[in-house]
Design goal:
Chain A has 392 residues and is α+β, with helices and mostly antiparallel strands. Chain A has helices at residues 14-42, 47-56, 74-85, 92-108, 111-123, 240-246, 248-276, 288-316, 322-347, 358-364, 366-370, 375-389; strands at 2-3, 128-131, 147-150, 154-165, 172-178, 190-196, 201-206, 217-228, 278-279, 282-283. In chain A, a hairpin with a 3-residue loop joins strand 3 and strand 4 (154-165). Chain A is globular, with a radius of gyration of 22 Å. Chain B has 250 residues and is an alpha/beta fold. In chain B, helix 2 (70-79) crosses helix 5 and helix 3 (95-109) crosses helix 4. The chains are: A alpha+beta (392), B alpha/beta (250).
């Protein structure tokens, strides 16, 4: 017998990727699809899914293998997000936000910080997210007000963050603060800290949402919250803004992948319905009015998918991809909104019933147009890059 | 008990709508998703549970098929098999050849138990397990829906037409797994990575001294006729009327 040689490369091969996507697909069909409607309607946090996600390894998906993660490429990761979002988008937020927290540490942390935090993030033992947004600052991040004031032992943080995913069930957050509110330019006074829940760091209200339910979007309140200096990401003040925006390309690929999933899921539901529902003596999929919709929906979903793959490929190659990620996010999120709307029309009266999945797609889709930088902002980023890359 | 051998067959995924090639020479496989035969997954899951209970020490997944069947063996390794053996052949083989090949592996590995799926979802033959037991000269227990091991005796609850039957067999034996034996676990993503480092040996029929038995020939493959659309009836009276009209009852 000849011994088959085993691969030991640090990146996953395409065969592994196929096996992983297959495993995710089975999990989604068996565990996610059956509970989606119930949990969405009850706005209930899917604790069982979280345990399964831990087992599957999703909380370490993009964390490097040397820190206990899977070290997945952006492209494989985006495909996982698509598969889940095609059935129920909300659960992807549980590990998306968490991985952006992990990425902030992995990209910008000191080696000691990476060694300490990343293995704990990878297993899901510590889960959390990124805390940037404030009541008066979203896309305009430099106008945040949360203050980190230096003390003799470290810092004291005061302020409020809002719309923080995993805010209630998560315990650890990368929090963007101002260590020097007078700094000019403003971003030079911003610093990011890894904050674990403790006295002084409490959760405000859970935000009730139109869609993207079941995930705990919450307010985080910091009231004289003391923190040691070794929690300052990277160990030096003034880099918080860059840490925050440095993760946005991958963040946008994430959100774009959710959009692709949702656009594809809406199409899948609508296609099946159109093949089974008959009017005027034939399935409505044979009526031109419906065919035109299905064709547009399929084209949008496919175009969005290709844009995401292109952005992820560039990201994985270490190239600048703000233009590509912006295009993918813009197009895929709009595709999700349009496809969910068109699916509503194909379902007709039933679309308005909560007994069908499609109204959830319709409520979930707009999040992708707004979150992770509004689509208006994406257009500005795309245009600026377009001009910069094509000097007159 | 030391070793368990589990049979793993590469088949068209159960979600794929199978299409027959236009010339009727078989089923179209180009670009079609392939998976582990679902009953073999159940067989493997049972072996894993036996090992996790401390009643076995090593699980070997064995497949007979093309080079690509390594993918299914990697899945088996990711699920938890300790090592794998591929008997490589590019020809479609029939159950008797598969049984001979498994027997050759058994002679080398000396397992205490062999678990296979009750049948593969491609040809649905359900023959490899029984044939293997006969060739090996050991007991068999097919369509197993519950398995308990007590030293060198296995107690099996079988699903039979009349209900459930409980039998005991002396080990080593061949057991074939039915649908309700267990629910296979998901493959965890980290385990897919780790499976790459597990041992996967590749051999072939000639090395094992097995010749392809041509006792069976596939003459022609045809898709089943499309079924006519059914109708809904209101009550039994309407059903009887409808059957009478069709001349099915008088």
């Amino acid at each position: 017998m000849s011994l088959h040689t085993t691969q030991t490369s640090q990146t996953s091969s395409s065969e592994d990727d196929a096996a992983m996507l297959d495993s995710i697909e089975r999990w989604v069909e068996k565990e996610v699809r059956p509970i989606a409607r119930k949990f969405d309607q009850a706005d209930e946090y899917p604790l069982d899914l979280v345990e399964q996600m831990k087992e599957l390894g999703l909380f370490g998906a993009t964390i490097g293998q040397q820190y206990g993660g899977l070290g997945l490429s952006a492209i494989t990761y985006a495909r996982i997000v698509q598969i889940i979002s095609a059935v129920w988008m909300a659960p992807t937020g549980i590990f998306n936000s968490h991985l952006i927290l992990a990425q902030a540490v992995e990209r910008n942390g000191t080696e000691a910080q990476k060694q300490y935090w990343l293995p704990r993030f990878a297993t899901g033992e510590l889960r959390g997210g990124l805390a940037l947004t404030e009541p008066d600052a979203g896309t305009d991040l430099q106008s945040i007000r949360t203050l980190a004031t230096a003390t003799k032992d470290g810092y004291v943080i005061n302020g409020t963050k809002t719309w923080i995913s995993n805010g209630i069930y998560g315990t650890c957050f990368a929090v963007l603060t101002k260590t020097d509110p007078k700094a000019q330019p403003r971003h030079a006074g911003m610093s990011m800290f890894i904050c674990e829940k403790a006295p002084g760091f409490t959760v405000g209200r859970k935000i009730k949402k139109m869609g993207y339910r079941s995930i705990d979007s919450a307010e985080l309140v910091f009231d004289n919250f003391p923190i040691s200096a070794d929690r300052l990401i990277g160990g030096a003040e003034g880099h918080g803004f860059h840490h925050a925006v440095g993760g946005l390309e991958l963040g946008r690929i994430n959100v774009a992948a959710r959009g692709v999933g949702l656009a594809t899921g809406a199409l899948r539901e609508a296609l099946r319905y159109a093949q089974n529902r008959s009017t005027f003596g034939k399935p409505i999929a044979q009526h031109q009015a419906i065919q035109l919709k299905l064709a547009d929906m399929a084209t949008r979903a496919e175009a969005a998918r290709l844009l995401v793959e292109q952005a992820a490929l560039k990201y994985d190659a270490g190239q600048r991809c703000d233009l590509e990620a912006g295009m993918a996010k813009l197009f895929a999120s709009e595709a999700a909104v349009e496809n969910s709307m068109e699916a509503m029309r194909i379902f007709g009266g039933y679309s308005y019933s909560v007994d069908f999945e499609i109204e959830r797609f319709y409520r979930d889709a707009p999040l992708m147009c707004i979150g992770e930088g509004t689509n208006e902002m994406q257009r500005i980023i795309i245009a600026k890059q377009l001009v910069a890359r094509n000097p007159a | 008990m030391q070793k368990i051998i589990v049979g793993i067959k590469r088949v068209v995924d159960y979600n794929v709508r199978v299409r027959v090639k236009p010339d009727g020479s078989g089923v179209a496989l180009d670009g079609v998703k392939m998976s582990v035969n679902p009953f073999d997954e159940i067989a493997l899951e049972e072996a894993l549970r036996i090992k996790e209970r401390g009643e076995a020490t090593e699980i070997i997944a064995v497949s007979i098929g093309p080079d690509d069947a390594q993918q299914q063996l990697r899945t088996a390794l990711a699920m938890g098999a300790d090592r794998a053996i591929l008997v490589k052949t590019d020809q479609a083989i029939e159950p008797l050849t598969a049984a001979h090949a498994l027997l050759a592996i058994i002679k080398t590995e000396q397992p205490d138990l062999v678990i296979v799926g009750k049948q593969a979802i491609d040809d649905d033959a359900a023959q490899t397990g029984p044939m293997l037991a006969a060739l090996w000269g050991r007991p068999q227990a097919t369509f197993c829906s519950k398995l308990t091991i007590n030293g060198t005796v296995a107690t099996i609850v079988r699903e039979v037409d009349a209900g459930l039957e409980t039998i005991e067999v002396d080990l080593p034996a061949v057991i074939s797994a039915d649908l309700r034996l267990n629910e296979p676990r998901y493959v965890k993503l980290p385990d897919i990575m780790k499976a790459k480092k597990k041992q996967l040996d590749v051999t072939d029929l000639a090395t094992l001294g097995v010749s392809i038995d041509d006792g069976l020939k596939t003459v022609h493959t045809e898709a089943p006729k499309a079924r006519a659309k059914g109708i809904l009836v209101k009550d039994v009276a309407e059903l009887v009327d409808a059957l009478k009209k069709k001349g099915l009852v008088s």
